[in-house]
Amino acid sequence: MIERIHNLIKSESFIQLVKYGLIGILGLIVDFGIYALLTIWLKMNPEIANFISSSCGLINNFFWNSFTNFKVHDHLFKRFIEYYIVGQITTLFTTICLFVFVNLLHQDKIIVKVIATIIATLLQFGVNKAVTFKKE
């Protein structure tokens, strides 16, 4: 049992997941910083602000993941488009969550964004590992 856990922790996929998470934290700082700036200080609509802030986080994370985590540098434009589409699909998910839980159910916009982002990140890792950063 301990050997299986040790092998799991040493596996390439586990290490990539940890790095993906760390890069994701950096992306969250970018995303949430811009989101807070746009919604709190500039009073922008939460859904529009979410699209802008998540786009900034996606761009940041794509380059970090390409060069430091998955280490794939070929077909960067194609990979970026795939990464961005996956990211924006999950952005659509977080935007729908914001609309429903903030506008209709009057929940806190930051708490809703945090929970929706955690779920979206787990989905993104699986798809990006299998599709976007698959070595060709």
Automatic annotation (TrEMBL):
Q: Which organism is it from?
A: Lactobacillus hamsteri DSM 5661 = JCM 6256
Which compartments is it annotated to reside in?
Membrane
Its main localization is membrane
| Membrane topology, as annotated | Multi-pass membrane protein
Name a GO CC annotation attached to this entry: plasma membrane
- Name this protein carries in UniProt: GtrA/DPMS transmembrane domain-containing protein
Keywords, A to Z?
Membrane, Transmembrane, Transmembrane helix
Would the keyword Transmembrane turn up in this protein's UniProt record?
yes
Q: Which residues form the GtrA/DPMS transmembrane domain?
A: 19-133
Kindly give the PANTHER family that the UniProt entry links to this protein.
PROPHAGE BACTOPRENOL-LINKED GLUCOSE TRANSLOCASE HOMOLOG
Q: Name one GO biological process term.
A: polysaccharide biosynthetic process
Q: Which Pfam families match?
A: GtrA_DPMS_TM (PF04138)
Q: Where are the bilayer-spanning segments?
A: 20-42, 80-104, 110-127
- Similarity field: Belongs to the GtrA family.
